[in-house]
UniProtKB/TrEMBL annotation:
<feature type="domain" description="Carboxymuconolactone decarboxylase-like">
    <location>
        <begin position="46"/>
        <end position="99"/>
    </location>
</feature>
<dbReference type="Pfam" id="PF02627">
    <property type="entry name" value="CMD"/>
</dbReference>
<dbReference type="InterPro" id="IPR003779">
    <property type="entry name" value="CMD-like"/>
</dbReference>
<dbReference type="InterPro" id="IPR029032">
    <property type="entry name" value="AhpD-like"/>
</dbReference>
<protein>
    <submittedName>
        <fullName>Carboxymuconolactone decarboxylase</fullName>
    </submittedName>
</protein>
<dbReference type="GO" id="GO:0051920">
    <property type="term" value="F:peroxiredoxin activity"/>
</dbReference>
Length: 184
């Protein structure tokens, strides 16, 4: 497949270059980022909505939501970037990576808190809301601010998935690909 909108080429405007340097820490910028760099306003709006900083969630909680949401949205580009960059830091083992792509919250590789987050992602993806039972479970495990962050994170990465899928972004060098079980 061909990329639908070509990424911007360097040199980037000073503000975008500074943001890219801060995000990428010496590595080449992701195609998603350089594509958004075509429009400084959209670039800034996108990063203003980012939630990869230290917030109300642990790295593991954040990456469970991101990777499950992007897998549900069939965004191999974004799923692969997060698995490659964060899976080991989040403590995901091979069975968990496989389950994030094509498993279920009830898979035996998950602890109860992990299952709760996967159920949240699955419910948001299929219903765009959270039922009362799941809401009560979330309230026992997370602060109100944590729940808000979970909802925003899932929504933001659904948007990221839309972008990556519709733009037909090519896989980043070194990123993961969906397991073969995902494709069957």
């Amino acid at each position: 497949m061909t990329v639908r909108i070509a990424p911007a080429e360097p040199p980037f405007p000073a503000g975008i270059q500074s943001s890219l340097e801060g995000l990428m820490r010496g590595k080449p910028p992701l195609v998603l980022f350089t594509t958004l760099a075509r429009d400084p306003r959209l670039f800034q709006k996108f990063f203003a909505g980012g939630l990869l900083d230290r917030g109300n969630l642990t790295l593991r909680q954040r990456e469970l939501v991101i990777t499950r949401t992007t897998a549900l949205c069939k965004s191999e580009y974004e799923w692969g970037v997060h698995i490659a960059l964060f899976a080991s830091h989040a403590g995901f083992d091979e069975a968990q990576v496989l389950s994030l792509a094509s498993g279920q919250p009830r898979d035996t590789c998950w602890q109860d808190e992990d299952r709760l987050l996967l159920e949240l992602c699955d419910m948001l993806h299929s219903n765009c809301t959270v039922d009362d039972a799941l809401w009560q479970s979330l309230k026992t495990a997370f602060s109100d601010e944590g729940i808000l962050e979970l909802l925003m994170l899932a929504g933001f990465y659904r948007t990221v998935s839309y972008l990556a899928n519709a733009l037909r972004l090519p896989a980043e060098p070194g990123s993961a690909t969906f397991p073969s079980s995902y494709r069957s």
